[in-house]
Amino acid sequence: RKKLTIALAGNPNSGKTTTFNNITGTRQKVGNWPGVTVEKKEGHVRFGDYDLTVVDLPGTYSLTTFSIEEIVARNFILENRPDVVVDIIDSSNLDRSLYLATQLRELDAKVLFVLNMADLAKDKGIVIDEEKLSSLLEVPVISTVGNRNEGTAELLKNIIQVAETGQGPRAERRVRYSRDIEDGVAVVRDLLQAVEDKDFPYNPRWTAIKLIEDDEVVRDMAVKALGDKAGPILEETARQRERISNLFDDEPEILMTEQRYGFIAGIVREVVKRSSIKRVDVS
Ligand code: GDP
Ligand code: K
Ligand code: MG
User: Where, in this chain's numbering, is GTP bound (predicted)?
Assistant: First the structure.
């Protein structure tokens, strides 16, 4: 039998645990993530020729490192390389969910989007063009109503499909930053790429982005993985950060966060339609 590891990611209250229960039934184990008091749920399910291990990641809005939940979720994806990361999205709050979604894409994980809470979106008169969302981010999209266990079989089928076909992010489906930032990312990425694979197991573009954003956890990871090869790369990173800061009079991480939100706003404009009948204007 073939073994797959599936991680469920998503914002708090998007329906991760509900989906987890729908998939795994009663075959689950609850504990803590090593070293921290964040709950870890792991379950098992047999589907077709596959044995799936399903992990319910802590709920997060982002994969930066401002909270222990974000660090736990990100480290699991980086270090355990799950075969598929299922991003559980609250369809009635798509824009809020897309920040995490774009970060998962950036991490080079194989992602499947689940538009959960499809019933709430419908009640609010929100219509999401799933096909367009799928093609804009090049990620398969399905919709579910978790608390009614609707769409679970379809979800399992799609998980297997994503694991098998190996959808990988094409460059143009990811956030592209402004030219001066992309130039800095490329310089650092090239230095990382020049290091032998066995010495550096992480995605070079993602790592370069995080270094330019001055992410401490990734800096420590790079030092640990690269040893004395890290020095010149971190020096170049500092030069690039300074160049960008001088150009825009703002820190790269602030500019990059803004640009991600811009990218997300563009996607929301293209894929979210509100039906005129149930439209509620909140001002
Ligand atoms: P988590 O924080 O992501 O693990 O979210 P939970 O699975 O705990 O779900 C949060 C709440 O939303 C619970 O009360 C669920 O019963 C409910 N819920 C889950 N999926 C759906 C859905 O598709 N539609 C509706 N209306 N409620 C849902
Ligand atoms: K909850
Ligand atoms: Mg939960």
Answer: 10-17, 35-39, 56-59, 116-119
Q: Is 149 annotated as a binding residue?
A: no
- Whether ligand 1 lies within 6 angstroms of the CB of 93 is answered as no
Atom 9 of ligand 1 has which residue's CA nearest to it?
A: 15
- Is 59 among the annotated ligand-binding positions? yes
**Both tokens assigned to 114:** 């689940």
Condensed to tens digits (0 to 9), the pLDDT of residues 196-253 reads: 777 788 889 999 999 999 999 999 999 999 998 999 999 999 999 999 999 999 999 9
Q: In the beta sheet, which residues pair with residue 42?
A: 29, 55
Cα atoms in the Cβ-side hemisphere of radius 13 Å centred on 203: 20
- Closest ligand relative to 9 C-alpha: 1
Nearest CA to ligand 1 atom 22: 117
Q: State the SS3 of 114-167.
A: EEECHHHHHHCCEEECHHHHHHHHCCCEEECEHHHCECHHHHHHHHHHHHHHCC
CA-to-CA distance for 114 and 15, rounded, in angstroms?
10
Which residues are bridge partners to 51 per DSSP? 3, 46
Task: Quote the pTM value.
Answer: 0.91
What is the rounded CA–CA span in Å between residue 12 and residue 5? 21
For residues 88 and 121, what is the distance between their CA atoms, to the nearest angstrom?
A: 14
Residue 171: band (very low, low, confident or very high) from pLDDT cuts 50, 70, 90: low
